[in-house]
Amino acid sequence: MADPTSRTFRSTQLLFDNLMGKILNTSTIVPDLINCSLSTLRPVNQGKDTGVDSVCCYRKTATAPAFDRVKTYHKFINETNGFTKLQNYNLDPKSLFVNDYHEASPPTTVSPTPKPQVATDCFTLNFTTNNLKYRTQMSIPKSKLFSSTQRLFSKLLGDIWKNSDIGPDFINCSLSTLRSVNQGKNTGVDSVCCYRKTATTPPFNRVNIYRKFRTETNGFTKMERFNLDPDSLFVNDYHEASPQTTLSPTSKRAVATECFTVNFTATSLTYRPQMADPTSRIFSSAQRFLVNLFGDIMKKSEVGPDFINCSLSTLRSIHQRKYTGVDSVCCYRKAATAPPFNPINIYQKFVNETNHFTKIGRYNLDPNSLFVNGYSPSTTDSASDLLSYELGFKVINKNLTNKNPLSPEYKQLMGSISNELNQLFHQSSISDGFKICAVTKLRIGSIIVDCKCYFHPSGIISKDTIKNVFQQETQNATSQWLGSRFQIMGFTIEEYPSAMATEPSKQELPYWAIILICFSVLLGSIFFFLLCVLTAVWVKRRAGKYQI
């Protein structure tokens, strides 16, 4: 049951998902329930009983009230005879928690059931195997080769973690990517490992885990039949450099994942309400099609060798549903020595590969709608440039549990917050001057959001005006809310010189012109030198004649 890929786990998941769905479909969040899914099955009372941890999701409209966990708790109690029976399962009436909400039963002589684990924490693990040759099928998570490699490494990693200080609460490890190292001679492994975290669990210590891994693998040189690069191990980006040797070092893996946003409007794609649901067929089909096209473009760009993937975060209505706005996130591996990400180069690559950004695949595009990480040369603003502002705030009613930009949780939050910000300013008193907002970074914990927003310059647009509008649009009687989902605090705003104003205006000479200028200067210098020599010889001869 500890293995989410096992038949026992899957059959149990299918049964419980169906039972919980029947209860919630008649509750206050109907008809917007999406699904329930089991996250873990865990031993209780030394394996005599089984603890069930699950996550239920539903769509929340702008007018929907805040989630009421008390009502949902009572709904479960009422539908299960005081939470004692769920179909053929007997339940511990003291074990129910809904979003950590629990009502204590009257004291009895029976020993209480331990409270279930209320959180799952994850960390990244990256390394390189020297005797596993990379194959192209390894880049496809659904391929047999990827699946067999994942099963093997998940077992090996699990054996190590079960003997570590997180062993009792260890859940599993899963591979996120297999990548080419040293031109395919070796294989890089990126994985995510998760464990249950209780309220009393100490903070995760990546140094201890790093050293535990080195100890269990003979200085990180051997893991069963795999030879390992001892300088390639990273635990949550923590790495201890090995002493320098005379051997040529193995290429260091990318030590971070960096993501950027791509936003645009498809004018030949009519918006439909189902597009707001990331689980709908129409969203999934649009995502598959566009992600494939994005990948073809990105693989030809400067981040091509390190490109991971792109994914859609939101599809939104433009011009009263005539068009569809597309918000996406693309990620790549970034080495420690790599230069800063340049959105201008990626922007230009998209323009060149899409006939001046007029067509991508079967979709017609608005050529003025493309933004890469908030950057656009603003072709509609011939007389002036856009103003750039960096906004920051904290979301206090939600937690970001996975800081990996590739995780579905990270991508969904980035897209949802971007969508809410754009709606806020589009519906505000400064909507005429507003261009776009793009979330650039999320930080773990109570979610700390960094984003960039762009405005057309006008008399009413200023730092103070934007701050006042944001405060007015998010303030209610007791607190601040961005849309109906995100309770926020700690808003900050800073004005930055816009990249749109500075970068495109640079005029660089082509290489042939620079070479020609240098060659001309060289010829001129040689000519001047010869002229000086000839003049000196002529003067000397004239002086000799006078002496005679």
Automatic annotation (TrEMBL):
InterPro entries: MUC16, SEA_dom, SEA_dom_sf. Keywords: Membrane, Transmembrane, Transmembrane helix. This is Mucin-16-like. The keyword Glycosyltransferase does not apply. The keyword Chloroplast does not apply. Residues 1-103, 119-240, 256-377, 385-498 form the SEA domain. The lineage of its organism: Eukaryota, Metazoa, Chordata, Craniata, Vertebrata. The chain crosses the membrane at residues 511-539. It comes from Thamnophis sirtalis. It holds the Pfam family SEA.
